[in-house]
C-alpha cells in the first residue's frame, strides 16, 4: 500500500474542497507560514506550498523570453541562392529552422529555461559548394 | 468445387472484349523497402504488364507509387508526423529483350539534409506521412489510401503493356542524424516501408491530403524549391518539447496544490517568411492527466491584433488515433486565436474500472495504470503576414473553463476573456489565491505531476527555493522530484 496517499479517488471533490477551505481559513498550517505582503523573500520553513504564502509580485514563470541578437548572416560568402538558419538550445532542442533573408536580419524571440544563456546556430545553403557553418550565440 | 464457381473462375480469366478498357486498380506490392533502407521490388509479383500500362495511362503517362512511411517515434518524429529521404529510385523494364531504366523521379516534398558523416546539406526528395491513423474516405478511392502516405512518381514515355520485367529499386538516404533536425527527422530508423501502385484518383487523394506534412521540419515543396519562398518555423518551447499546463480548479478557493486537476501538454509553432513575419500558426497538444471530479473545457488562446484574419482547421484524435466525430473543424480567424480542443474533459476522458464500474481520476491515482490521452493539432494560415512582435509572448494563454463552477482559470498575468464566465459576473479579474499562488502554471516537459492530493512543494522539495530566490537558484528544480509523491507520467507516455 502506498504510504502517502490515503484518500481514494472517489472521495468527492466537494468534501476535499470543504476541508481545504477550512484549513486555509485556520491559517494554512501554522508556524511554518511566511508573512506575505512585505516584499521580502524569506527562506521557506517547509517545502509545501500550503505552509508558505508568497509576497505579491513573485514570479512563477519557468521560462523566460529571450530575444536572439541579430546574426550578421551576410558575413558569410555562400554560393547558394537560399540561406537557411537553424537555432537550437545547447541540449539540441530545435528552436528555429528555415530560410532567411541574409540581407535583412530580424529579431527572433525564443523561450528558454531560467539561466539558459547561449544558443547554437547553423547557417547553410542548398549548394554543394557550401558547408554548414556552426556557431554559438551568447544571450 | 461447385459448377457455378468453376464457371465464374473461367469467366474471370477471359480477356475483355477488344477495345473495352478495363479500369486500372491500385495494388499493394509484396516486396517492401527493407529496414536497411533498400528496396528491390518486383512489380510482377502483384500485378501484370497490362495493369501497369493501364495505371500509366490513368496517371497521364506516369507510374505513381505510394509509400507507407513507418518510422520510430523518436525526437520530432511521432505518430502524426514522420519522414524519410530518398537517395535514389530507379524503375526498370524489359521490353522486347531491351532493358530500360528510369532514374528521374519526384515526390511532393523536398528538404536539405546532410548524409552520414557530412555537414554539407543538399536537396533531396522526401516522403512524409503518419502512422496508425484511421482515415475514413469516400468517393472513388481504394482502401489503400487509408494507410499509405506519400507518392513517388516516374514519367514513363513508352507503352509497357508487353514488359517482361518490371522492378522498382529504391535506396533511402542515411542522414547524419546526430546533427538533430532536419537530419534526425528525415532518417530511416524503423522497420520496412510498404509500397503500392496507385491509380490517378488514389494518387490525387494522397497528394492533396499530404499526411504529416504540416508539422514536418524544413519542408521545401518541390514546386517552390528553385524559386524560393520557403518558410522558416519557430517553435515554442522547441520542436520536440512541450509546455505542461497544470491547474488547480477550485478557483477562487485555494486548492490542495497538487496541480493535477487537469494537465495538458502543448506546443506552438509559427511559420515565418524571409522577413521574419508570421504567415501561419500551428499547435498540437495532449491530455496528460485529469485529477478532478469537475469537468473542464481546455482552451489555448494566442493573442493577436484584432484585425488579423486567416483560415485553417483543428483536428482532435482519441487515444486510438481516430478523429473525433465532427472534426476537423474549420477555423476562421479574426483577432485572437482561441480554441477549445478538449471540451467537457470528464466525459471526454475517464478511467473506469471495467470490473467494478468505479470511475477514477485519470493518471493521478497511484493505484491505477497510466492511460494515453487525446491529441489535437491545428494549423491556421494568415491572410496577410504579421510582424512577429505582434504575437502574444509564449507560453501564450492556456486556460481552463470549469463547467461545474462557471469560472475560467488563467495564468496569473492574464485576465478573464469569456463574456459569460462567473469571473466577469463576480468581478474577479485576478488569478492568485489567498496565499499568493497561481491556479495555473506552465512547467517544462520533464515535470512529473504530483500524485493525487500531494502538494507540489512536497513533490518537488526545491520548488519553493526556486520561487523564493526570485528564480535564481534551483532553476532545474523539476529534474529532482520526490518519487514517492509524483506519478511517473513522462513524455514517453503521453506523447504519441
Q: Compute the separation of the termini of chain B in Å.
A: 49 Å
Q: What proportion of the residues of chain B is helical, as a percent range?
A: 10-25%
Mean pLDDT level of chain B: 90
What characteristic shape of chain A results from the CA principal axes?
Answer: elongated
What is the C-alpha radius of gyration of chain A, as a whole number of Å? 26 Å
Distance between the termini of chain A: 49 Å
Please tally the helical runs of chain A, counting DSSP H or I stretches of 4 or more residues. 1
The stretches of 5 or more residues of chain B where confidence is low (pLDDT under 50) are 1-20, 223-228
Poorly predicted tracts of residues of chain A: 1-41
Number of strands of chain A: 6
Strand order of the largest sheet of chain A: 3-2-5-6
Average residue-wise pLDDT of chain A: 73
Q: Treating each run of at least 4 consecutive H or I residues as one helix, how many helices of chain B?
A: 8
The helix/strand series of chain A, from N terminus to C terminus, equals HEEEEEE
Measured by DSSP, the beta-strand proportion of chain B falls in 25-35%
Biggest pleated-sheet summary of chain A: 4 strands, antiparallel
Biggest chain pair interface = A-B, 75 and 93 residues
SS-based class of chain B:
mainly beta
Q: What attributes does this structure have?
A:
heterodimer, A: 139 residues, mainly beta, 4-stranded antiparallel β-sheet, 1 helix, 27% strand, disordered N terminus, B: 496 residues, 8-stranded antiparallel β-sheet, 7-stranded antiparallel β-sheet, 26 strands, 11% helix
What does this structure look like?
The complex is a heterodimer of chains A (139) and B (496). Chain A has one helix at residues 13-25, and strands spanning 64-68, 83-88, 94-100, 108-112, 118-125, 133-138. Chain A is mainly β and 139 residues long. Chain A has a four-stranded antiparallel β-sheet with strand order 3-2-5-6, with no helix packed on it. A two-stranded antiparallel ribbon of chain A has the order 1-4. In chain B, the strands form five sheets. In chain B, strands 13, 14, 15, 16, 18, 19, 23 and 26 form an eight-stranded antiparallel β-sheet that branches. In chain B, strands 2, 4, 5, 7, 8, 10 and 12 form a seven-stranded antiparallel β-sheet that branches. Chain B has a five-stranded antiparallel β-sheet with strand order 1-11-3-9-6. In chain B, a hairpin with a 6-residue loop joins β21 (351-352) and β22 (359-360). The two termini of chain B are 49 Å apart. The chains are: A mainly beta (139), B mainly beta (496).
